[in-house]
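Allow me, if you will, to draw on your knowledge of protein folds for a short while. I have a record of one protein: its chain in single-letter code and its fold written as discrete structure tokens. I should value your view on which stretches of the chain appear to form regular backbone elements. Thank you for your consideration; the sequence and its tokens are set out here:
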Amino acid sequence: MPLAEIKSNVEQKMNKSIEALKNDFTKIRTGRAHPSFLDNVHVDYYGSATQLSAVANLTLLDARTIGVQPWEKSMLNAIEKAIREADLGLNPSTQGEMIRVPMPALTEERRKEMVKLVKTDAENAKIAVRNHRRDANEQLKRLLKDKEITEDDDRRTQDFVQKLTDKFIAEIDKMVATKEAEVLTV
């Protein structure tokens, strides 16, 4: 495996770890409403589980309310049921042809729990990044042992991987600070 391939693989894997963390962060609720909060809600659409955004238009009605406008009137009850059963702590209500999903205000205690959850998710992402670094370094050691690369190449590539790791860890820390401020804002 050439060095360029190791470098690009480790960078891709670390990027995927960051993307996974971003996805995890969208599931953590702040006091504000955001349509992406309903991304993991699936509706029974003519016998198949379909993502909510595929059967309805999601909009922000105000800072704490998401509006769900189904494309078919017959889907109103199924969508409301799916949101209620998604275990997100939401209580949707139907008003005419639209479903309003108010976001309940978070208590101080719940905000602190959310911050702990943010930090746990971030630590898991950091562990994943470090594991990718370890895997890349093991591949380098194998190549060096098999005399496919020089010691200089090994050292330079290890330095590159370490700098990459530091960059991604710093990015995770920035994301945590941003999300923590978002969660703690009343």
